[in-house]
Inverse folding.
């Protein structure tokens, strides 16, 4: 009996108590979809918002400052205050902007990042939607934001936005390929396309103490995946779409209010999501010794990776766009092919 | 150039990590105020009883923010009846007026929180004799609303 | 990169290669033995008589064009005929080795009716200064040859002189105002400049427009 | 033959030239742009991301300082010079004071010269710290900005104790300085310099060997020695091309002949060279400060007849002079013309940034927008000095 059937019978019982006729199954499904997607969006955006606070505090500590510490305990509610501020700000539309692309672009950027959360395994039971083709879904959906970036660039009618949008889109397209190939080698090792299966495949230990994480046989793949993560989220060594010292604010130059906030939230929820995905693929997901629940293990690993991302953010300078694109095509792409060959070899030798 | 690739990046990241636990450089401004040096050149003030009306300060002022005005206060010391008045918003805090004053009357104070909602702020000789807080208390339209 | 820092310290301590003969400072090694060797104040610092070594060859080469010479607080000055400015400066740069042009500027003397051009030169090899001056008729055409063929860096200095003094430089690649907006009336550093206020606005095409009054919406 | 096709992207006009193969776009970088360090406008003519032509447009901060100088007494221009290169105010004071001392033939007391050297080198450190911070910021490094500003804050604290101001200092007078050092100031300078040197090592680790930084800077914005000399570049911009020229050594003033320090040079002439010259110059400043503190003599701090209320009565003879100093950014000179009156007849300031910025088109033409920003940052210009 699936979860939907259980919910349907439960709703039927509730309806019967009030003497209402039994609803068709599709209504239950619709209700569940609605509730689940609201939950998904809430979780994704809240984590994105909360991470703005985490980032700002960490960033401040790295820079010998205090950071936001006024709103709520230790400034934790700062993102809510910022959200309220952004919501009440005037939503400016440049006079010669392309109205529809300009207005739609933030949603096109933020929605895929949220949708991609659906097949992410938080623990052995917590997963929004255990799709059989979860990996394909994630890769397909997370390839959409370049479209939104191009829309924002074109719609803003601003030369700086145009440069930023084209840079960001070129970067995302370029890094999609090493990302997909390194994910493909994981799929090969797992032998299935569902994310929960990828985690299951990493349970257990070699020699009793080395966890069977894919990061050990697939170190090159993990590196490629991590670099592509940086490129896709657009944070500082690779924030070529925004590069505030060159392009003012890149593709978000003309945006204000909550539309700007959406880009911002998309970036931070993207950092969390892609870190979580790296953990799922390479660091054993929610698996771990039994003294902590799986969800805690998952969050701990993800936060560790997010800290690494922030640490890189505050330390490194920005690449030049041609250098970084060259790096994608001339270094990472051959490396990812090599990694795929290693995965095939491991499979053939029967290690997995 | 670094001989080993990525070595420089690791070194840099180690440096930033070292700074993570260090004491903070900043302080929370309105509650914690930064002390200023003894010689800090802040707002100009006047010891009204001492002024002899020689107008040296007005002569030394580089941009004419300090001018003389007719005012009766202490006819024994100041026979001309002229005292300096200062357009505080225009003052560039060079301290020349203090330097040339023969009787140590006009001087710079250590007050530096002079933010206004208005643009001009012409301080009369009487106001120059008071502290900034007194002026704000007595003439609210000069200070915060 | 640690080797770089050490190298600079270790290498320089040994011996400084011979400095230019004109430079007062000679070498670090010598200084270290006797740091207080020079009595205060250093005699050669200020108010030393101008070198005539550099003026004499100029006089030989351009006999009649050198009007007179003088002294600018220890730096030799030659007054030249404005038409020969480019030749004299070219000679000074290429033959006498005055490679560095500090600036080109003017000074206005309305009573004498002249506008004095001023080229401040410096020689890296000998460490000497040379000032070249020329008198233009301030009510005339105020034309003088541009030295941009000799020093690329003179470009902006000459634009500044045009902007603030109204001197026209023949042969300048792009002589237009540099600080003030296009369309500004007058050249402000002239002593008889009309100081009534001018206000800058922008027309619909983004060009600068000068107004007499700061009307509403203009700036 | 050039066929021009206009593609209207709703107001953005792109001009296609030469059979549609090359696309050119005009881009205004500035007057208000995060990387122009003030109000500088660069007219860029772009082919894709490649800068075909670059034309700096100046004058957005022009305050007519040379005209202002003619309005008041000689000393009244001293606080105005602070506002020229506003991140190294002491050097503007020094240049003006040096020109005046040559004009009026003033003997500066020895202690005043030592105080000038200490405060000036502190100011040089402050200026270079600002450069390091903003240079990192232009490259996208955010954290070095806070570290270098934290250190700069310590330096400015010392300057504040000595002079009473942090930015617009007005510390120098004709023939000396305004204040003697306060109680215990020299000890504090010494301990702060030790602390700063330790931090400087960390900054070195953080910046100099970073691979991405090397990728971004090496071979970018290259200039040869001949070009730099012809353009009138001075300071670190010139020294990065291999020319060992420092006014403190070659045309010395004050007590610099006694100071033992090296002039760091690089031979590459690229952005990395300019960056390295500055970061190595800071070590020399530590050295100079230590030496000056060791040798600090006693005595008066201002020449007779130029102190107190006499400062506004200076009346130099009917002469001219040109005095120049080596600022953190290059040669700053003042040409003074006196007509034996209380007011200057003409004051001309030869700005370091004004001449250094002129090489920007040479550096950036043919490189990308990102390199334009780096080249501009590596020149370390300050717009208050360019526009005056």
């Amino acid at each position: 009996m699936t979860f939907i059937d259980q919910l349907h019978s439960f709703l039927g019982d509730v309806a019967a108590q009030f003497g209402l006729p039994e609803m068709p199954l599709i209504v239950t499904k619709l209700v569940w979809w609605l509730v689940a997607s609201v939950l998904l969006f809430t979780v994704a955006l809240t984590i994105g918002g909360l991470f703005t606070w985490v980032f700002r505090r960490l960033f401040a500590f790295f820079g010998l400052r205090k950071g936001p510490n006024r709103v709520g305990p230790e400034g934790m509610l700062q993102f809510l205050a910022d959200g309220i501020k952004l919501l009440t700000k005037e939503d400016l539309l440049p006079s010669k902007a392309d109205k529809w692309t300009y207005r739609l672009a933030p949603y096109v950027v933020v929605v895929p990042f949220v949708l991609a959360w659906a097949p992410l395994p938080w623990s052995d039971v917590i997963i929004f939607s255990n799709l059989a083709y979860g990996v394909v879904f994630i890769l397909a959906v997370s390839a959409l934001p370049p479209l939104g970036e191009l829309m924002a660039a074109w719609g803003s009618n601003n030369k700086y936005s145009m440069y930023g949008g084209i840079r960001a889109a070129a970067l995302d397209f370029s890094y999609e390929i090493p990302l997909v190939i390194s994910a493909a080698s994981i799929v090969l090792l797992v032998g299935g396309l569902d994310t929960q299966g990828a985690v299951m495949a990493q349970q257990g230990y070699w020699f009793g103490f080395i966890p069977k994480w894919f990061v050990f046989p697939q170190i090159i793949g993990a590196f490629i995946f991590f670099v592509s993560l940086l490129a896709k989220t657009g944070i500082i060594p690779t924030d070529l779409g925004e590069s505030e010292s060159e392009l003012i604010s890149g593709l978000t130059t003309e945006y204000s209010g909550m539309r700007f906030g959406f880009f911002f939230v998309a970036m931070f929820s993207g950092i969390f999501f892609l870190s979580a995905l790296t953990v799922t693929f390479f660091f054993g997901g929610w698996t771990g010794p039994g003294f902590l629940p799986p969800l805690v293990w998952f969050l701990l690993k993800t936060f560790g990776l997010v800290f690494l991302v922030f640490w890189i953010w505050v330390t490194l300078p920005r690449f030049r766009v041609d250098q970084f694109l060259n790096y994608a095509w001339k270094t990472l792409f051959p490396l990812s092919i090599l990694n795929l060959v290693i995965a095939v070899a491991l499979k053939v030798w029967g290690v997995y | 150039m670094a001989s080993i690739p990525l070595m420089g990046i690791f070194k840099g990241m180690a440096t930033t990590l070292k700074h993570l636990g260090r004491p903070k450089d900043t302080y929370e401004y309105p509650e914690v105020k930064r002390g200023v040096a003894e010689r800090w050149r802040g707002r100009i003030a006047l010891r009204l009883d001492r002024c002899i009306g020689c107008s040296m300060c007005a002569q030394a002022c580089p941009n004419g923010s300090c001018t003389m005005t007719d005012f009766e206060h202490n006819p024994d010391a100041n026979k001309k009846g002229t005292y300096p008045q200062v357009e505080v918003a225009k003052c560039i805090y060079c301290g020349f007026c203090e330097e040339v004053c023969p009787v140590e009357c006009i001087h710079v104070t250590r007050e530096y929180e002079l933010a206004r909602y208005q643009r001009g702020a012409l301080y009369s000789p009487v106001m120059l004799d008071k502290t900034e807080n007194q002026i704000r208390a007595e003439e609210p339209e000069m200070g915060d609303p | 990169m640690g080797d770089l820092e050490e190298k600079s310290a270790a290498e320089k301590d040994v011996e400084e290669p011979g400095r230019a003969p004109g430079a007062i400072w000679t070498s670090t090694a010598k200084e270290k033995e006797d740091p207080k060797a020079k009595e205060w104040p250093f005699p050669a610092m200020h108010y030393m008589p101008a070198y005539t070594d550099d003026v004499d060859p100029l006089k030989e080469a351009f006999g009649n064009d050198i009007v007179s010479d003088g002294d600018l607080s220890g730096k030799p000055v030659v007054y030249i005929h404005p038409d020969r400015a480019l030749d004299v400066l070219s000679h000074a740069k290429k033959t006498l080795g005055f490679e560095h042009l500090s600036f080109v500027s003017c000074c206005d003397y309305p009573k004498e009716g002249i506008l004095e051009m001023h080229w401040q030169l410096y020689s890296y090899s000998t460490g000497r200064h040379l000032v070249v001056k020329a008198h233009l008729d301030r009510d005339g055409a105020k034309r003088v040859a541009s030295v941009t063929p000799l020093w690329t860096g003179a470009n902006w200095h000459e634009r500044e002189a045009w902007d603030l003094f109204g001197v026209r430089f023949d042969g300048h690649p792009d002589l237009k105002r540099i600080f003030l907006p296009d369309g500004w009336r007058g050249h402000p550093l002239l002593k008889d400049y009309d100081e009534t206020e001018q206000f800058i606005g922008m027309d619909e095409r983004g060009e600068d427009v000068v107004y007499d009054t700061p009307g509403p919406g203009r700036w | 033959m050039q066929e021009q096709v206009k593609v209207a992207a709703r107001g953005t006009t792109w001009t296609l030239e030469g059979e549609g193969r090359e696309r050119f776009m005009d881009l205004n970088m500035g007057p208000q742009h995060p990387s122009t360090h003030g109000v500088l406008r660069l007219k860029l003519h772009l082919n894709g991301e490649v800068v075909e032509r670059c034309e700096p447009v100046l004058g957005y901060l022009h305050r007519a300082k040379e005209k202002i100088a003619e309005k008041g007494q000689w000393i009244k221009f001293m606080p105005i010079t602070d506002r020229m290169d506003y991140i190294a105010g002491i050097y503007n004071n020094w240049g003006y004071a040096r020109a005046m001392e040559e004009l009026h033939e003033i003997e500066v007391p020895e202690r005043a010269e030592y105080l000038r050297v200490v405060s000036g080198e502190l100011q040089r450190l402050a200026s270079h710290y600002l450069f390091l911070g903003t240079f990192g910021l232009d490259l996208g490094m955010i954290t070095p900005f806070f570290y270098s500003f934290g250190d700069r804050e310590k330096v400015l604290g010392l300057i504040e104790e000595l002079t009473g101001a942090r930015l617009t200092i007005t510390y120098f007078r004709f023939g000396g300085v305004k204040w003697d050092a306060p109680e215990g100031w020299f000890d504090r300078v010494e301990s702060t310099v030790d602390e700063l040197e330790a931090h400087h090592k960390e900054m070195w680790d953080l910046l100099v060997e970073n691979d991405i930084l090397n990728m971004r800077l090496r071979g970018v914005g290259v200039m040869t020695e001949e070009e730099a000399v012809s353009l009138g570049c001075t300071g670190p911009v010139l020294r990065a091309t291999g020319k060992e020229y420092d006014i403190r050594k070659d045309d010395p003033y004050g007590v610099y002949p006694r100071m033992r320090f090296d002039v760091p040079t690089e031979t590459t002439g690229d952005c990395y060279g300019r960056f390295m010259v500055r970061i190595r110059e800071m070590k020399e400043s530590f050295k100079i400060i230590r030496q000056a503190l060791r040798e600090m003599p006693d005595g008066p701090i201002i020449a007779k007849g130029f102190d107190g209320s006499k400062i506004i009565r200076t009346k130099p003879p009917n002469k001219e002079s040109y005095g120049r100093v080596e600022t953190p950014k290059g040669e700053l000179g003042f040409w003074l013309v006196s007509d034996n009156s209380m007011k200057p007849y003409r004051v001309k300031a030869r700005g370091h940034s004004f001449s250094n910025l002129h090489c920007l088109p040479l550096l950036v033409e043919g490189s990308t927008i990102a390199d334009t920003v780096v080249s501009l940052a590596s020149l370390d210009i300050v717009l208050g000095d360019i526009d005056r």
Q: What stands out?
A: Chain C touches chain B through one residue (CB under 8 Å). Chain C is about 20% helix and 25% strand.
